[in-house]
């Protein structure tokens, strides 16, 4: 494995990356055998699970059958692979049902991830993990989509609280769970939360593709739009899971129109994010670089951001399970700011002045007076800080 980043990686992480960068049909090298020597296999399994790449690792180990890998490791990966296959088949069935239902209700829907992406990028739904279905619908059909999911037995997660309709830009999806099927569906009206700049639904729909996974029409993002979505999503989470980078590597191996993609990334202020993804995929997973990719790698900012993400990879950071440790939370806030363009930073800081649900809890006002939260926001924020500090001192005194 040849990359500029591996110096401070653990032996187990180096082994994971070395296996992930192997092309189909290649053989183990001396470096692979050396990394397997004295590896902590429990740590290796934990890393593969955390990064959601165990289906790919299982396939490579089953093909190569290296004698230095203990039997319990092979068995553990095989078990995880079977469980994931069952999960992906269940999601595939539900995706087919929902696509048919939405078509009947004249709801245009684009499937963003899940089995449709697994089939497109890996050629096999069992080779990628997914815990839910992500669907993008037009804003004007959001209410109809919600009503239909409720009629199918889904239950809405009412975690979004809103003041003056700020949910439309502060958030980008609502979550539904089917209690009997155990399936989660996220319905998007945006690809990413504000202050991202992204294509509107009509543009995405005009460039859609139809999946060949099943006979019924299931629509998903065009190849260049998928790249834009996957790099913006992975970057927002610090590439803290290698599966997202593996997706990028698989997509880079497809017939992307790089000139079209570069125009798209520039238009939506994501050229540095695309460059970061390509840089990481090349250096960590040995994704091939070609001449047509050169403009995407020209930005120094892309290289700096790529180095910043090593913080997450080295520490096996999980941003999806609160509470996130304070030091990681602080780093992630700074990282997200570094990710933004100047325009996005201005929008982000302006959004801080917009009232929050906490303001309503601090000083409940009738809906017709909610406009007063704008001038009152600094006062309400200060009162909460004083109250929280006072509560903290009381807890310390009682302890």
UniProtKB/TrEMBL annotation:
It comes from the Bacteria. This is Renal dipeptidase. It comes from Paenibacillus paeoniae. Pfam families: NTP_transf_5 (PF14907).
């Amino acid at each position: 494995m040849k990359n500029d980043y591996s110096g401070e990686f653990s032996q187990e992480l180096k082994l994971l990356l070395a296996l992930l960068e192997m092309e189909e049909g290649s053989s183990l090298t001396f470096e692979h055998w050396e990394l397997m020597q004295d590896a902590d296999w429990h740590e290796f399994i934990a890393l593969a699970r955390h990064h959601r790449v165990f289906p790919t690792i299982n396939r490579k180990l089953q093909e190569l059958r290296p004698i230095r890998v203990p039997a319990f490791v092979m068995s553990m990966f095989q078990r995880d692979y079977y469980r994931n296959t069952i999960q992906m088949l269940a999601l595939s069935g539900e995706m087919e049902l929902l696509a048919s239902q939405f078509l009947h209700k004249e709801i245009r829907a684009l499937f963003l991830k899940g089995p449709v992406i697994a089939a497109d990028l890996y050629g096999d739904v069992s080779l990628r993990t997914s815990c839910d279905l992500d669907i993008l619908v037009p804003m004007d059909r959001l209410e109809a989509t919600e009503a239909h999911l409720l009629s199918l037995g889904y239950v809405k997660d009412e975690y979004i609280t809103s003041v003056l309709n700020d949910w439309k830009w502060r958030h980008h999806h609502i979550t539904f769970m089917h209690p009997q099927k155990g399936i989660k569906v996220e319905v998007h009206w945006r690809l990413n939360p504000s202050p991202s700049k992204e294509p509107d639904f009509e543009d995405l729909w005009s460039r859609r593709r139809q999946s060949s996974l099943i006979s019924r029409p299931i629509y998903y993002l065009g190849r260049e739009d998928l790249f834009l979505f996957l790099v913006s999503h992975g970057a927002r989470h610090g590439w803290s899971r290698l599966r997202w980078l593996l997706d990028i590597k698989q997509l880079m191996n497809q017939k992307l129109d790089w000139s079209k993609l570069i125009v798209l990334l520039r238009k939506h202020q994501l050229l540095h994010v695309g460059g970061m993804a390509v840089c990481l995929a090349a250096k960590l997973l040995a994704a091939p670089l070609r001449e047509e990719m050169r403009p995407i790698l020209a930005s120094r900012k892309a290289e700096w951001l790529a180095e910043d993400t090593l913080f997450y990879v080295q520490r096996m950071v999980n941003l999806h399970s609160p509470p996130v440790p304070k030091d990681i939370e602080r780093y992630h806030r700074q990282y997200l700011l570094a990710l933004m363009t100047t325009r996005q930073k201005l929008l982000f800081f302006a959004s801080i002045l917009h009232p929050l649900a906490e303001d309503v809890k601090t000083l409940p006002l009738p809906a017709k007076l909610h406009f007063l939260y704008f001038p009152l926001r600094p006062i309400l924020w200060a009162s909460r800080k004083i109250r929280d500090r006072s509560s903290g001192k009381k807890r310390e005194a009682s302890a």
